[in-house]
Design goal:
By secondary structure, this protein is α+β, with helices and mostly antiparallel strands. The protein has 2 domains: 1-49, no CATH class; 59-151, no CATH class. Helices cover 41% and strands 11% of the residues. A two-stranded antiparallel ribbon has the order 1-4. The protein has a two-stranded antiparallel sheet with strand order 2-3. A hairpin with a 7-residue loop joins strand 2 and strand 3 (97-99). Helix 2 (31-43) packs parallel to helix 3 and helix 3 (65-73) crosses helix 4 (121-148).
Length: 151
């Protein structure tokens, strides 16, 4: 899922050139339509992904979209964080990063998170909270790894 704004258009074009699909929408605009498209994609056997903090942030704060998608499809939520040794980091709200060519990267991942298809709204919020705890831990591990990589 990528937002409908200008940045989202660039991201959508890039991932489509790489052979992936793009559901266009976000937590602030067009999200339900994009989520419906993602539900269909999962039911057709595709994997889907989110940037969990949405187009407006706050940075690193998960939205409920992945939990809602998991409830509707029965698919698991897989959380991960990518840490980079050398990168360009923008002074934007999301601290967007571009890795230097040939830099070292480490992917930190966690056990899948499952949510029952009959989960109520409270359970969806609990799932979102669990996702947030897991992602916070993965980011801490990634930040620690990056500090260890200094030359």
């Amino acid at each position: 899922m990528t937002s409908l704004n200008f940045d989202g258009e660039a991201i959508a074009r890039t991932i489509q050139r790489l052979g992936y699909g793009a559901a266009r929408g976000s937590s602030s605009r067009g999200g339900l339509r994009a989520l419906a498209g993602m539900v269909q994609a999962v039911r057709n056997g595709s994997d889907v992904g989110f940037t969990i903090d949405g187009p407006r942030g706050p940075r690193y704060v998960a939205k409920q979209g992945p939990a809602i998608l998991a409830r509707k499809t029965g698919a698991a939520i897989f959380c991960f964080h990518v840490a980079l040794k050398r990168k360009i980091q923008f002074n934007s709200w999301d601290h967007f990063q571009i890795p230097y060519p040939f830099t070292r990267a480490m992917v930190f991942d966690a056990a899948p998170i499952w949510i029952p298809s009959d989960a109520d709204e409270s359970e969806v919020r609990d799932c979102r909270d669990e996702m947030q705890r897991v992602l916070d831990g993965l980011k801490r591990a990634g930040d620690h790894w990056e500090l260890e990589q200094t030359d």
